[in-house]
């Protein structure tokens, strides 16, 4: 069962309390998992038990998403705001320089944690901010449309759509290459997470400018990209490799933007290989 953890963070107005929900399984060296914008820790459910055979796996609801609280007042939803909160979370969890894997927004955060030397290794699945401006506008349009749909559809309609493969494709086909594999309950839950994500708008706005341009020479980095990513095209992985020349670039055949559900065994293997 997921747990709730409250801890102190610094804000311009003084210390405040942040509350983060997380799922923790397994034993071994700690591995923290960070989801994408509008999602929740359950995005990692298909790979959790595989990873937990060898690792102490901690899947986090990022602040402002899932069941976690919004960031405390005065902390922005950009990297400068979120990274210190996650560093404080690591301390509260009792993990020092964990391995970290992230998807999309979570992949970007993972790379920044690596750049700052706060983690032992980084695996970034389709990380953000390796786009052209046209690609960014397209991706933001897809995400905004998913958010608008999640907020417009009544929950009974979402539940009805999720019962059929075609409905699951309509609700989640932008992010999964094989949306029919997602369970109806999971689709209902992640549509609700998208609808209720209090940090969505501010996070999207914070990502509207700037690219990730830093090499990460001192931390092992793996960048993996789904061959059927419909949100961030796989050519962005080539750009990421140019920015981080020492990174291992891995192709995920047949996988979409959120690849954990499309091929759990492959994604788990990539994460474990990248964090040995």
Automatic annotation (TrEMBL):
Q: Which residues form a coiled coil?
A: none
Record has Kinase as a keyword: no
The record's Gene3D superfamilies line, in alphabetical order, gives: alpha/beta hydrolase
For the AB hydrolase-1 domain, which residue ranges apply? 31-269
- MF (Gene Ontology): hydrolase activity
Which is one Pfam family of this protein? Abhydrolase_6
Q: Which UniProt keywords apply?
A: Hydrolase
Top-rank taxon: Bacteria
The answer to whether UniProt assigns keyword Amino-acid biosynthesis to this entry is no
Q: What is this protein called?
A: Alpha/beta fold hydrolase
Question: What organism does the UniProt record list as the source?
Answer: Streptomyces javensis
